[in-house]
Specification:
Length: 317
């Protein structure tokens, strides 16, 4: 192995064989194709329902539609390329496309975490200050919050993509980089570099950590206030109804942030390739697939909208 000047002059990234000793590639291909199609159909159906059904014209569903758009992008940025790799005898990706995938993966991934935090704020206002909810969380405010999430994630992704460009990369005799992952993720890219990556690691823990801690603190504070408010409700039925509006969101928050923290905020020596790939599958494939079904199967408003879409003549009392 020798060092190349930078990724833009290196012709190709070769991804090592995935899940050695695991299921056959053909079985993995069918599995991830099913997951991808389920994620796309589920999220786009949710977008369609919320857009067309006037009964879902509320800030909560406006944010949920934004989350579905982000999840559609997150799945599309990684899973089609994974399917190509599984169908190929020698998985590879051109260097420029690898860096583009890295950039957009972080745009969608960071936006996902920020939108989830905004949704926690929405639930806080709805439960803890319901009288002011229509004023505080109207659609104009929600649109500004979503735009801010996209802007922050775009700047974050530009920073980390920019820090990758000057690095030198370990290449084989044919000038190819061997990337031990199924897509162009941050940790595996840094592991293939033969440059000093302390600046990149520092940026992950400081800037990236701050970007995680801020939304996490907002979510924890919101749910602490929500829990206190729910416990003070006089009736058990009221407590159950209030908690039901948060259960789906809290489930996905735990799942999403847990896998991200597992991969990106452990010391590099504690991360194994298999653990990283397993966690990456969870937040790139399973989370976009699970979100629309968790929110729809546990939500009577969404189920009602789906019934009205499938049976237009149906009248819901």
């Amino acid at each position: 192995m020798v060092c190349s000047s930078n990724a833009s002059h290196t012709p190709i990234f070769l991804l090592v064989e995935l899940w050695k000793g695991g299921p056959p590639q053909s079985l993995l291909f069918l599995l991830f194709l099913t997951v991808y199609m389920g994620a796309i159909v589920g999220n786009l159906t949710l977008v369609l329902l919320i857009t067309q059904d006037s009964r879902l014209n509320t800030p909560m569903y406006y944010l949920l539609r934004g989350l579905s758009v982000v999840d559609t992008g997150l799945a599309t940025v990684t899973l089609p390329q994974l399917l190509v790799h599984l169908a190929s005898a020698q998985p590879s990706i051109p260097a420029v496309r690898c860096l583009i995938q890295f950039f957009f993966f972080y745009v969608f991934g960071v936006t996902d975490t920020l939108v989830v935090a905004v949704m926690a704020l929405d639930r806080y206002v709805a439960i803890c200050d319901p009288l002011h909810y229509p004023v505080v969380m109207n659609q104009q405010v929600c649109a500004c919050l979503l735009a801010s999430c996209w802007l922050v994630s775009f700047i974050h992704s530009l920073l980390h993509a920019g820090l990758l460009l000057p690095l030198q990369w370990a290449v084989d005799n044919e000038g190819a980089i061997h990337l031990p992952h199924f897509f162009c993720d941050h940790r595996p890219l840094l592991k293939t570099s033969c440059s000093d990556t302390q600046t990149n690691e520092l940026a992950i823990f400081l800037e990236g950590g701050l970007l995680m801690l801020g939304p996490c603190a907002l979510i924890l504070l919101s749910y602490a206030c929500i829990a206190a408010t729910i416990l003070h409700l006089p009736s058990a039925a009221g407590r159950k109804r209030a908690f039901s509006t948060c259960g789906s969101h809290l489930t996905m928050v735990t799942f999403l942030y847990g896998t991200i923290i597992w991969v990106y905020f452990q010391p590099p020596s504690q991360n194994s390739q298999e653990q990283d790939m397993a966690a990456a599958v969870m937040y790139t494939a399973i989370t976009p697939l699970a979100n629309p079904f968790v929110y729809s199967l546990r939500n009577k408003d969404v189920k009602g909208a789906l019934s009205r879409l499938l049976v237009p003549s149906q009248v819901t009392p």
